[in-house]
Amino acid sequence: MEDNLVPWPDDAKCAVAFTFDMDADSFLHLGRPKDSYRRIAVTSELRFGPLEGVPRILDLYRKYDFKQSFFIPAWCIEQYPQVIESILKDGHEIGHHGFIHEHPNELNKDEEKYWLQRGVEIIEKYTGQRPRGYRAPLYNFSENTLELLLNYGFIYDASLMGHEQPYLIKSQHGELIELPSHWTLDDWPPYVHISDINFEMQIMSPSTAIAGFQEEFDAAWEQGGLWIAVWHPFVTGRRARIRAVDRLIQYMIDKGGVWFASMEQIALHIRSVVDSGRFVPPVDNIPYYSEQIDFERYKN
After folding, report:
1. Given 108, 117, 134, 156, which is the most exposed site by the fewest CB atoms within 10 A?
2. pLDDT given at position 196
């Protein structure tokens, strides 16, 4: 794998993208539909993301003149239009992240298509263009997702974890660039403790959590790879944590040879070097299985 490296722009050692999934309170209403309106404390915690976290994140990006990517459920775009306006004003990308954080692999094909289309329409309404990138809520990519993304003109996905470098996901309907995610660079495991959604992790200090993210960066840098953070404004947007992110960015800059880019910029670059033959990516055929595995047939 280390011999098949992406040639990054300006001979950079690695590419870095800080992505934020601005879920706000969407998944609370989805997961607790009967009484979400009564869960005032957790709603306030989740609303912290768009109302307090995003402004801090945007301030940090202005400090370093970064253009990055936000993945946002379409329902949240409609609920927090002023926040979306501020993100767009600063020139950041908005990617598709479902309608109300629904899980595609729990829907049939028609249902998944319906919510994907609604999200596309809302993003186009607010941004003036169709979304180029997609991240499935909770990474729950389905056996139909690739076909649907191709039909709607997406150029990349950011939901899967099959490789540590960019790769292609392919089916009979075509191929898509995959910019992989992973839980090691997600801020939920070190930070999130919400009993209302049955997610109760031991909360780490920012210095401990950021050390893990930094070690992942060092490995990506040494191997000429790709580092993508999957963070959330209500989580990493809190003051001590965003200070730790600031220190991490400065560490990356001081190390040198880092291309900071949005996900769309990275995807377009990958498409260019693949088409020119300068990079031969791994290819995963999706779905991996065509039907349910019948373990009964293995019994003697």
Report:
1. 108
2. 80
